[in-house]
Amino acid sequence: MSVLKVLEIMSNSTVSWEDATKNAVTHASKSISGIKSAFVNSQSVVVNDNKVTEFRVNVKITFEVKD
Predict the structure, then answer these.
(1) Distances from the Cα of 35 to the Cαs of 7, 53, 55, 66, in angstroms?
(2) Could you count the other beta carbons within 10 Å of the beta carbon of residue 55?
(3) pLDDT per residue over 27-62, tens digit each?
(4) DSSP secondary structure of the chain
(5) Gap between the Cα atoms of 17 and 44, Å rounded
(6) Which of 15, 52, 56, 59 has the most Cβ atoms closer than 10 angstroms to its Cβ?
(7) CA dist., res. 40 & res. 6, Å (int)
(8) How far apart are alpha carbons 15 and 19 in whole angstroms?
(9) pTM of the entire structure?
């Protein structure tokens, strides 16, 4: 039987929401092994001078807990 844990993190990118999501998984994988999935819970942007300057995501990372 597997035990899975969910960790909620926030990530950002100046390129896109997709890039922000990739950044979240890449950064989480530095300290967490066995990542099984990532679920984008919410998205937002930062606006400066009427232009989108940053994409932000709130991501739930699911990973397997080792015995």
Answers:
(1) 10, 29, 23, 12
(2) 21
(3) 999 999 999 999 999 999 999 999 999 999 999 999
(4) --EEEEEEEEEEESS-HHHHHHHHHHHHTTT---EEEEEEEEEEEEEETTEEEEEEEEEEEEEEEP-
(5) 9
(6) 59
(7) 12
(8) 6
(9) 0.88
Q: CA-to-CA distance for 64 and 34, rounded, in angstroms?
A: 5
Q: Which domains does the chain have, with CATH numbers?
A: 3-65 (3.30.1660.10)
pLDDT at 2 over 90: no
Residue 65: burial class (beta carbons within 10 Å; 0-12, 13-18, 19+): exposed
Q: Which of 34, 46, 36 is nearest to 10 (CA)?
A: 46
